[in-house]
């Protein structure tokens, strides 16, 4: 090899090494939990595609080693998903190009019962240093994001009692400033529990036994942690929980209940288990309930039972059983299980615009995402619809495009830096414009 050619090879190799180690652009988007950076279903970034297929706008696709239904968590150049691997609960970390960085087995898999569920339904949550994972088996673990080493691990069912849910555990862990918090809402015992994020020390455990009948006492929803409002005499952080026919608010530092609103099941329906989670819209907590038949807005603040004083508005003609609403700029986006997408005024609950997507035997389980002037909703057969945002008042929401991956999908799309990460039961897809 000539000196000139050798020099060229060295330069090319050096350039490739630098490119491989190059950091993401400054201000790269993170998606630390299943509902996004502000826990409201809103994503940042621009340049997202409005259509895709198995052969169009696919930057990469990774076949996962086992089933899972969790939404990925993204921080920097790391993408974390949970799935089953050879009968074990596992965590996989990929880079932004789909290359596996590490994987860890956490415990023995407890497989799902329902056809669209798995033993790995709960989504991971990360702060950029650690990632916390939770499984139907009861295993809760903290791992180092950099190398996947387990920082601590416990099993809630061994520690506090058996899983009595009729179906598959679905709630995801959430973070406060000091703790990772899990809601266990079932026939009994039901409780909220907080562990120190780094050490795993038990910080508090709060019983949450309410008078909901039979299956209505069971919940698959995920709590929300938001900053407290001093003007309302709220603590530093507020933990909002939906399930068992009630919304309760707690001091996230201690678990102490601050207020509750009941009346979500006025007829005492035995089977009103809840799946969709609450979302906070400024001064209001929005609670979907009654298997998709109601939507209730609750004013924050107060003490004790505030059912009679703090319900701002309620709709009994609209709701979502599984998808959790998104909130942006004083508007709520609801996607029903049958594909009706509605934009509401958060302050009054009035409908602003709506679209009925084509009827299909497949339902919607993934939650809507608002990003870059569009709403993305995804059906269980892997077909997504992209709609305009904000929609014109009193008009049908315009259709911008459609995407198809033709795989079972219940996880919520993740939108970061102009790319869409779509997790199916079997695969992880990265969708976007090719450079």
Give a verbal description of the structure.
- By secondary structure, this protein is mostly beta strands.
- The protein has a domain at 171-274 and 276-320: Lipocalin.
- 6% of the residues lie in helices and 40% in strands.
- It has helices spanning 3-21, 156-160, and strands at 58-63, 73-75, 78-85, 88-95, 100-108, 125-126, 130-134, 139-144, 150-155, 174-175, 179-184, 191-196, 202-207, 224-227, 237-243, 246-251, 257-261, 279-281, 284-289, 294-299, 304-305, 311-315, 326-328, 331-335, 340-345, 351-356, 369-371, 374-378, 383-388, 395-396, 399-404, 414-416, 419-423, 427-431.
- A hairpin with a 6-residue loop joins strand 11 and strand 12 (191-196).
- The longest helix has 19 residues, at 3-21.
Set down the secondary structure blueprint:
Elements: H1 3-21, E1 58-63, E2 73-75, E3 78-85, E4 88-95, E5 100-108, E6 125-126, E7 130-134, E8 139-144, E9 150-155, H2 156-160, E10 174-175, E11 179-184, E12 191-196, E13 202-207, E14 224-227, E15 237-243, E16 246-251, E17 257-261, E18 279-281, E19 284-289, E20 294-299, E21 304-305, E22 311-315, E23 326-328, E24 331-335, E25 340-345, E26 351-356, E27 369-371, E28 374-378, E29 383-388, E30 395-396, E31 399-404, E32 414-416, E33 419-423, E34 427-431
Parallel strand pairs: 17-21, 26-30
Antiparallel strand pairs: 1-34, 2-3, 3-4, 4-5, 6-7, 7-8, 8-9, 10-11, 11-12, 12-13, 14-15, 15-16, 16-17, 18-19, 19-20, 20-22, 23-24, 24-25, 25-26, 27-28, 28-29, 29-31, 32-33, 33-34
């Amino acid at each position: 090899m000539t000196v000139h050619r050798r020099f060229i090879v060295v330069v090319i190799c050096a350039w490739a090494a630098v490119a491989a180690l190059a950091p993401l652009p400054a201000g790269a988007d993170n998606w630390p939990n299943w509902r996004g950076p502000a826990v409201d279903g809103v994503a940042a970034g621009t340049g997202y595609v409005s259509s895709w297929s198995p052969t169009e706008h696919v930057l990469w696709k990774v076949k996962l080693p086992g089933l899972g239904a969790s939404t990925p968590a993204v921080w920097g150049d790391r993408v974390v998903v949970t799935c089953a691997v050879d009968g074990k609960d596992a965590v996989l970390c990929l880079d932004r190009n789909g290359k596996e960085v590490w994987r860890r087995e956490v415990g023995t898999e407890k497989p799902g019962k329902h056809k669209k569920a798995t033993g790995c339904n709960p989504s991971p949550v990360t702060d950029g240093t650690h990632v916390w994972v939770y499984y139907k088996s009861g295993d809760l673990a903290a791992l180092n994001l950099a190398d996947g080493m387990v920082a601590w691990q416990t099993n809630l069912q061994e520690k506090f009692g058996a899983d009595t849910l009729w179906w598959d555990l679905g709630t995801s862990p959430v973070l406060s400033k000091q703790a990772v918090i899990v809601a266990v809402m079932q026939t009994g015992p039901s409780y909220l529990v907080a562990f120190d994020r780094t050490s795993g020390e038990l910080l508090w455990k709060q019983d949450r036994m309410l008078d909901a009948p039979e299956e209505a006492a069971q919940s698959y929803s995920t709590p929300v942690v938001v900053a407290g409002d001093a003007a309302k005499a709220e603590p530093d952080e507020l933990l909002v929980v939906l399930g068992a026919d009630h919304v309760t608010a707690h001091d996230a530092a201690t678990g102490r209940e601050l207020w509750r609103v009941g009346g979500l099941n006025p007829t005492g329906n035995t089977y009103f288990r809840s799946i969709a989670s609450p979302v906070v819209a400024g001064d209001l907590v929005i609670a979907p309930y009654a298997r998709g038949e109601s939507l209730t807005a609750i004013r924050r603040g107060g003490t004790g039972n505030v059912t009679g004083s703090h319900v701002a508005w309620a709709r009994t003609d609209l709701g979502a059983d599984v998808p959790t609403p998104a909130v942006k700029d004083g508007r709520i986006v609801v996607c029903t299980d049958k594909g009706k997408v509605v934009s509401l005024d958060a302050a009054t609950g009035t409908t602003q615009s709506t679209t009925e997507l084509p009827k299909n035997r497949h339902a919607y389980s993934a939650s809507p995402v608002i990003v870059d002037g569009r709403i993305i909703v995804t059906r269980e057969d892997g077909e997504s619809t992209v709609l305009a945002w904000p929609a014109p008042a009193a008009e049908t929401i315009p259709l911008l495009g459609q995407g198809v991956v033709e795989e079972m999908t219940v996880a919520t799309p993740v939108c970061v830096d102009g790319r869409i990460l779509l997790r199916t039961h079997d695969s992880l897809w990265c969708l976007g414009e090719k450079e």
